[in-house]
Amino acid sequence: MFVVIRMRISFHGGAREVTGACYLLEAEQTKILVDCGLFQGRRELEELNGEPFRFVPSEIDALIVTHAHLDHVGRIPKFVRDGFAGPIFSTAATRDLALPLLHDALRLDARNGGGMLYEEKDLERAVALWRAVPYGTRQAMGGMEFRLHNAGHILGSAMVEMRAEGEKILFTGDLGNTPSVLLPAPEHFSDIEYLITESTYGGMAHEAAEERVLRLERAVEDAVSRGGALMIPAFATERTQDILHLLNEMLLFKRIPDVPVFVDSPLAIRITEVYERYPEDYRPEIRELFGQHPHLFRFKKLRFTESVDASKSIAEVRGPKIIIAGSGMMQGGRILHHLKRHLPDERSILLIVGFQAAGSLGRRLVEGAERARVLGEDVAVRAEIRKINGFSAHADGPQLYDFAASNRDALKRVFTVQGEERQALHLAQEIRDRLGVAADAPQLHQEFEI
User: Fold this and answer.
1) pLDDT in tens, 6-16
2) Of 97, 121, 444, 450, which residue has the fewest beta carbons closer than 10 angstroms?
3) Which helix (H) or strand (E) holds 164?
4) 283 shares a domain with 220
C-alpha cells in the first residue's frame, strides 16, 4: 500500500503569545527548527523556559534563526545543552547581535541567583555551531531547502523561505514596520502556499512615520521646558539606534534644544557598535548618509555610560536631560533606577516606544497605574506617561494583512503566531473573512499536518 508522507508543523512557543518563538517543521527524514526563543512577560510564562523541550533536540537536523531578539534566540544555548549538535543558520548580523544579547542574559541570570537556563560553555558550543548565510543563498538540508530574505525588522532580520515536499512555506519571523528609520522594507512574495506570520499588532494600526518623529520631538521640547527628565526605556537592539539617529538629525537641524543625552545600557553600547559594522544592511539613503557622515548614532552631548559609576553620575546632572536605558519593557535593567528617581517628578516624562507584554511594568504604566513597585519600593507615578506605537519595529495590522493578501492566489493555509491571543485570532479571522483562506492561531505545542 502506497503511503503519502505529509509534512508536520508544531508550535512550541509564540502560540497566542508574543514571545518564545519556536517552530518545528518535519518532512520525511528531515527536522528543522525555526527559532528557539525565550518566553517573556508573565511569571507563569517565563516558567516555561525551564521545561524540557517537547521534541528531542539531538534529532533536529538544523536550527534556522530569523533574528537576534531574545524571544527568538534566548533558549538556543539550552537547546545545545540538551543535545542539539547540528548547524545553526542565520545572517551574519543576526549572529553578531545575538552573541552579546545571550551573554547579557546569562549575566543577568547569574546575578539574580537562580533560574540558569544555560552556562557559558553551552553558549560557546552554540557559537561553534553558528553559520552565517547571506540573504538569497539557497541552502539544502536533507529533504528541504531554505533561503533567507530581508524582513526589515532589525539589523540582519530574515524571513525563512522553505521548500519541502513540493510546497513553498514562509516563516516571517518578525515582519518590519514600513517605513523603518534605518532599514529597507521587507521583501514581498506572491507565491507562498503556507504562511507562518507574526501577529503582534493584528487588528491595530501604527501612527504615520511623520507622526512618530513629531511626537518624539515634542516630548523632548516639553521635558526641556519643564526642566524634567525624558526617560525612554528602549530595547538595546534597533530601538536605541533609531532614537539616537533621529535625535542626531533633530539636533543637526536645530529642531530640539541641545541637552545632555545618556545611553545608560552597556548592552546597547555593544549593539550600536555592531550596527556600525553593517552599513550595507541600511536602506539606500541611510547607507549613503553613513558614507558621508559615519556618526549616525553619535553627537556632541551624547554620553554612553557603560560603568556603574558613570550610570550613577547621571543623577548629578541638573536640569533637563534625556535618558535612554534598558530594558524596553522595564522588567529589569538600569531604567529602573531612573524610574525610581523620576516617576514621582511631575516635570518628567516617560516615553514608551516599544511593545509592552502583558504582566510587565511597562504595560501597567501604559494602562494608567498610579503607583508602581520599582526596585522593592512603592513609587508614586506623577510623571507624564506617553506612548508612541509608530516606533515599533513590527508591522501593524494593515501591513500584516497586505503581506498575506499579496499571496492570495497561492495560499493554502496561514498560521498566525507571535501575538497575544486577541491579536492572533483577529488576524486569522481577517484572513479567513477577506481572503477566503484557511487560517489558524495555534495553541502551545499544537501540531498540524500540511
Assistant:
1) 799 999 999 99
2) 121
3) strand 158-164
4) yes
CATH code of 375's domain = 3.40.50.10890
Q: Say how far apart CA 212 and CA 249 lie, in whole Å.
A: 14
Mean pLDDT of 69-74: 96
Q: Is there a domain that residue 2 lies in? A: no
115-131 confidence digits (pLDDT tens): 689 999 999 999 999 99
Task: Please say whether the dihedral angle defined by the alpha carbons of residues 90, 91, 92 and 96, taken in this order, is positive or negative.
Answer: negative
pLDDT band (50, 70, 90) for residue 29: confident
How does the average pLDDT of the chain come out, rounded? 94
Residue 425 lies in a domain: yes
Q: What is the CATH number of the domain that holds 27?
A: 3.60.15.10
Question: How far is it, in rounded angstroms, from Cα 361 to Cα 372?
Answer: 8
Q: Is 319 left (phi over 0), alpha (psi -120 to 50) or beta?
A: left
Cell of 257: 534644544
Domain boundary among 368, 391, 414: 391
**Which residue range(s) make up the domain with 280?**
209-391
Identify whether residues 257 and 344 lie together within a single domain: yes
Residues 6+ apart with CB under 8 A from 175: 151, 152, 153, 159, 186, 197, 198, 394, 395, 399, 400, 403
Computed on alpha carbons and rounded to an integer, the radius of gyration of the chain in Å comes to 22
Q: Whose CA is closest to 325, among 427, 387, 227, 234?
A: 234
The DSSP code for 367 is T
- Strands 167-171, 23-27: pairing is unpaired
Please state whether the peptide bond connecting residue 77 to the residue before it is cis, i.e. omega within 30 degrees of 0: no
Give me the residue label for grid cell 521534541: 55
332 and 402 assigned to the same domain: no
Indicate if 359 and 244 belong to the same structural domain.
yes
Query: Do residues 287 and 234 share a domain?
Result: yes
Helix-, strand-, coil-residue percentages of the chain, each rounded to 5: 35, 20, 45
- 235 and 369 belong to one structural domain: yes
Reduce the DSSP state of residue 349 to 3 states and report it.
strand
Q: For position 142, what pLDDT does the model report?
A: 87
DSSP label of 139: E
283: in domain: yes
Query: Which residues, at least 6 apart from 401, have a Cβ–Cβ distance to it below 8 Å?
Result: 427, 430, 431, 434
Alpha-carbon torsion, ordered 377, 383, 384, 388, to 10 deg:
-60
Asked if the structure places residue 28 within a domain, the reply is yes
Q: How would you list the strands of the sheet with 261-264, edge to edge?
A: 302-304, 261-264, 321-325, 229-233, 349-352, 384-387
H-helix or E-strand containing 372?
Answer: strand 371-374
192 and 89 belong to one structural domain? yes
What total of structural domains would you count in the chain?
Answer: 2
